[in-house]
Amino acid sequence: MSNGVAGRRWLDGLPSVVARLVERWGLEVGQSFRGGTAGFVASAVDASGRACVLKVAMPLDMDEIDSFRRSVLVHKLADGRGCAELYDHDESDFAMLLERLGPNLEELGLPLAERLRAIATTLQSFWRPVAQDCGLPTGADKAAWLARYIESTWMELGQPCERAVIDRALQYCNERAAAFDPTTSVLVHADAHGWNTVDAGSGSYKFVDPEGLRSDRAHDLSVPMREYNEPLLAGDTQRLVRERAEMLASWCEVDPEPVLQWGFIERVSTGLANVRDFGGDDAMVFLEVARRCL
Fold it and tell me: What H or E segment, with its residue span, contains residue 68?
């Protein structure tokens, strides 16, 4: 248990939490899903025989509590369009009862171009205008947070990449924060990668695990930009990155330059996070792609 004493305490209390939820929602809980990092997720059937998913978050600090509440809010705002439908939730036990979907894009093993197209298409069904007072942080808030995170984490890790990479990321954070327009912002998933894009049947997909922001559409394309780095290292990296940005932008009818900028920011922040949490060559690949794009 990587979360120490607090994580062990949560794990020890999990059976009683699940028992309460089983009684409250009339559930028959099946197999738990592997791959989660901060919670318990299992298949279930409710009293009506409806297939669903029980998700219990592990709220060890205020940030994680806020993340749970924001995820509930995003599910409500999406209302099942482009995102798993929320059937019910329990804030006291940090639990959600969700629509059960099929395998994700990574499990389906689709070619990369098809995965990227599926993510982009699903984003188009997910995006919608939301009120400025809906309770979600903005793209400007996120850009400022990322700038602080990138600078502090780079220093904390002993400067694992060139300063020029960090300076470019900070420049883009400032530009994206300044460009935020509340009048054109939409509901943004903020973690739209292949593992969170799940088969909804009939050739369509829905997202799970939304982080939730109110930002520009290009912001949501930053995650498919930052993932799948190995093909980008197999040739002219800068050209291949731009081609991906232009492809995603054309599918979603947005300007490719913000896609490039958000993608660079996400690639650097994720690379630093992976160096910190996992280490190894796989973590450094993110930063190497960023370096080649200078």
Answer: helix 62-78
Query: Do 30 and 43 meet the contact criterion of CB atoms below 8 Å apart?
Result: yes
Q: Count other C-beta atoms under 10 Å from residue 264's C-beta.
A: 25
8 Å CB contact between 66 and 56: no
Task: Give tens-digit pLDDT for 95-134.
Answer: 999 999 999 999 999 999 999 999 999 999 999 999 999 9
- The predicted model scores a pTM of 0.92
Residues 6+ apart with CB under 8 A from 264: 168, 169, 172, 290, 293
Q: Which residue is listed with tokens 């990574």? A: 106
Residue 256's nearest CA partner among 237, 271, 241 is: 241
Query: At what angle are helices 237-252 and 112-126 packed, to 10 degrees?
Result: 40
Q: How far from chain centre, in Å, is Cα 100?
A: 19
CB of 38 closer than 8 Å to CB of 57: yes
Task: Give dist(CA 273, CA 110) in Å, integer.
Answer: 27
DSSP-assigned beta bridge partners for residue 83? 207
**Length reported for the chain:** 294
Report the C-alpha gap between 221 and 205 in whole angstroms.
Answer: 16
**Do 39 and 33 meet the contact criterion of CB atoms below 8 Å apart?**
no
| Token output for 109 | 């093993």
User: Assign residue 190 a region: left if phi > 0, alpha if psi is -120 to 50, beta otherwise?
Assistant: left
CB 213 within 8 A of CB 136: yes
Residue with tokens 């919670």: 39
Q: pLDDT digit string (tens) for 151-207?
A: 999 999 999 999 999 999 999 999 999 999 999 999 999 999 999 999 999 999 999
Burial (CB < 10 A; 0-12, 13-18, 19+), residue 183, is exposed
Residue 1 has pLDDT above 50, yes or no: no
What is the set of domains in the chain, with CATH numbers? 4-99 (3.30.200.20), 105-292 (3.90.1200.10)
